[in-house]
Every structure is written in structure tokens, then in C-alpha cells.
Amino acid sequence: MAHKVFFSFHFKRDAWRAGQVRNSDLLADEDEYGVIDGVEWEKLEREGSEAIKRWINDQLKYTSVTVVLIGAETAGRPWVNYEIRKSWERGNAIIGLRIHNIKNQDSETDMPGPDPLDSIQLIDGTKLSSICKTYDWNTDDGRKNLGKWVDEAFQAREEYTGETKLKEEEARKTPNASPSQAFAPRATSQNFQTQGAFQPRAPWGDNANGRR
Fold first, then answer.
1. Do the bridges between strand 134-136 and strand 186-190 make them parallel or antiparallel, or are there none, so unpaired?
2. pTM of the model
3. What pLDDT does 159 receive?
4. What is the mean pLDDT of residues 175-203?
């Protein structure tokens, strides 16, 4: 069964790595949601946080699974945290996927970072990381198994009967749209059609007009 998937990640540091996951042979280009070019993103930034929230919420409504792509600095990003919390609250299944070992455009890997699911808790103190599984794209063979993980996560959320209310954040701050805190999520439905080699597309490549 195909599920529409929302990808959350730290754009400034991990856009290239995230692009390789999103454009792997498990994803269908024609079913993608949330694609936004640099000009439109800059427009959202000018409109402020509420506009960005509306955009995120609009993208999430098409999806049933959220995949958090975890790099060196993903944990603690205000907009990533917002996405995770909204994903859980609306009933999405959530998967953590470590991508620091994917090479970037300079053929460099990165250092591992904390799991952002560790910092978000339910009101009973349960961490999301104890409910939602986290995998590694390289060591766990994400290219082969991402579809299976998505299916399993969706089924697990459907069967979940525990606490669902999230604990309020200790220092509640409204995320802003500064480039240093920005990310670029995109949702897509997962399938098993074989795609060509990874080709970064704006705003993913170096020729992106805007920053996220």
C-alpha cells in the first residue's frame, strides 16, 4: 500500500543528502507534494511565521507518514520540531532516518547528530523516540527498505493505543523564517518505480534562487 510521505529536515546543511533520499528509486516524481521554488520561499519568509505555518500545515494534510531526515544539526531546529509535533498531533506515523553518512555534492559525509525525537515527549514522559523507530539510510539499507519502514510505521500508528497528547515545550518559542533556522520539507507518495540517477532540482541544487 502506498502512503504519502512528508520529509522534514535541516535544509541549509542537509539539502543534498535529503535530495538523494527523496529522489531514490522508491519515490515517484509525479506524486510529489510540497515543492516550492526559491522565489516562493522568499515570499513566505517575507510574510512571516504564520504564513510558513499555514504552508507546512497545508502540506501535511495530504500525508499519513512523516520521515524526519536526521543530520548533524537537525535536532533543535524550531521548524523541524514544529513539523514533528504537528505530524504527531494529526495522527501521522513518524520515522527517524539518519542521513549523515550520505555524501554531499562535495563527496563528504557528516558527523552524526542527536535524534530530534528524543526531545519531544508525551505528557506521561514517554519520548517519541521510544515509540517511533529511527533507522540509518546507509547501514540499514534505506534504498531497499524505506518502503517497508513506511508501511510498518503506518500500521504501528494505526494500532497504537497509548498516550497521544504531547507535553508542552519548556521554552516555547515561535519559529522564525531566518535562513539559519529554515528547512525545506516536501511530501511525496512512496512507490516502487525505478527512477534515474539523482538530479538535484531547484531549490535543491547550487543554482537555487532562494534560501530555506
1. unpaired
2. 0.79
3. 97
4. 41
Q: Grid coordinates in use for 90?
A: 494529526
Q: How far apart are CA 56 and CA 132, in angstroms?
A: 21
| Grid coordinates given for 54 | 499555514
Q: Are strands 186-190 and 4-8 parallel, antiparallel or unpaired?
A: antiparallel
Half-sphere exposure of 166 (CA within 13 A, CB side): 20
Reduced to 3 states (helix: H, G, I; strand: E, B; else coil), residue 185 is coil
Alpha-carbon span 40 to 186, nearest angstrom: 14
CB 185 within 8 A of CB 9: yes
Examine the pLDDT at 161 and tell me if it is beyond 80.
Answer: yes
Q: How many CA atoms lie within 13 A of 6 on its CB side?
A: 28
3, 61 Cβ separation under 8 angstroms: no
Q: d(Cα 92, Cα 146) in Å, to the nearest integer?
A: 16
Just give the CATH number of 4-190.
3.40.50
Spell out the domain ranges in the chain: 4-190
